[in-house]
Amino acid sequence: MKIKVSAFAAIAAAVVVGCNQPAPEQKDNKPCEPELDLSTEKLDRFGITNKDYLSAASKRALQWKYVENDWYRVFNPMQPLKGDLAYEEGVVRRDPSAVIQVDGLYHVWYSKSTGLTDGFGGDIEKDKVFPWDRCTVWHATSKDGWTWKEDKEVAVPLGEKGTYDDRSIFTVEVMQHEDMYYLCYQTIKSPYDVRTKNEVGLAWSKSPNGPWTKSKEPILKPADNGVWRGEEQNRFNVEKKGDFDSHKVHDPCIIPFNGKFYLYYKGEQMGEEILFGGRQIRHGVAVADNPKGPYIKSKYNPISNSGHEICVWPVDGGIASLVTTDGPERNTFQFAKDGINFEIRGAVKGANMPHAIGLNRTIEATADNPTKIFDWGLSHVYNSWHYQSIMRFDSYRKTSHVAPGAKKPDGDKSDKVQDN
Ligand code: AAL
Fold this sequence. Notes:
Layout: E1 2-4, E2 35-37, H1 40-46, H2 56-63, E3 73-75, E4 79-80, E5 82-83, E6 91-94, E7 100-102, E8 105-114, E9 136-142, E10 147-150, E11 168-177, E12 180-188, E13 199-205, E14 213-214, E15 227-228, E16 238-240, E17 248-257, E18 260-268, E19 274-275, E20 278-279, E21 281-288, E22 296-297, E23 312-315, E24 318-323, E25 332-336, E26 343-347, E27 376-382, E28 388-397
Parallel strand pairs: 5-10
Antiparallel strand pairs: 1-2, 3-28, 4-28, 6-8, 7-8, 8-9, 9-10, 11-12, 12-13, 13-14, 15-16, 17-18, 18-21, 19-20, 21-22, 23-24, 24-25, 25-26, 27-28
Bound molecules: 3,6-anhydro-alpha-L-galactopyranose.
């Protein structure tokens, strides 16, 4: 038996079946009415007491498209690294790239700077306004993923004064493609004030050890359709906010996909607000035929309504994303067969969850275990507002909740069963 309900109930984790595109008869923008599956099996699975009295929560539950536990994962507390990447007072090491393996060594790149953060309001020509200000990209290698050796020299240095990356280069991601290595990263041109636009640059090399050739221009820029109000450096004061990425394009990550290159990024909007899910942060994608671009932003942007640092990986013929930190859909795994239309596949426990994840791309996610790539990887932690360090996370798949000694359910796929 099927009944119809108003789509107004469908927020947060709910996916409105069949309501993504307005039906021809709904051009007046009246809400469409998704059908609910009120089969005995469905009602029993969700424990719904009376199908004639469905609460808003029950209606949302009946609209969930994917409720299996293949994606569910629990994170353990993060562990410190050893060697050059152990925490060092006075030094910022943050936003690690993905980890790749070349010639038996793990490689990672990250933002590095030194000294206290001064914040805004002083002399921004001299000060360090954020921990990620005055950063450059550094590279380290490891045999075992625990003890790391940092190169003696910077991997990607700042540009000459007056160029688009003369102030800070940071939040780097790596892509290995056809014997070439590509680093994409955020760039700041001085002066760095609260209204400064943030862009994305690219560097490439035949070897993970460099030398790196940098793009002469950014490969991605913020949308140019917001309007500040007044001259004062106040990022909340706008005539018009513009697109979701009108202020900053951040956290770039390029994935080869379907014969093209998908550059996923975080957008920050001029006049950003705090809404019901937290900061107004969303993700976008820009697509190119070649790794060096040109990257054309998707007409479907934004492709998330939540999230922060980009964390995407290819699996099962599509692209998966861990959406963290901000927005009503934070702490969810999402999947898009076409790399654009993401839907929720599972929630993630907030406890111990790393942010600013550098995925371990040596671990292959599979259709059967799509979040296996999270077995271990790197992320940063805030030792203080001034100093951050990179640590190692690990996690395990959990498909049942079993008391010690009790019988597991049939077909349990947990890596290990543990209450946490
Ligand atoms: C991070 C990222 C970007 C921001 C800053 C450094 O969480 O989103 O990289 O610019 O914070």
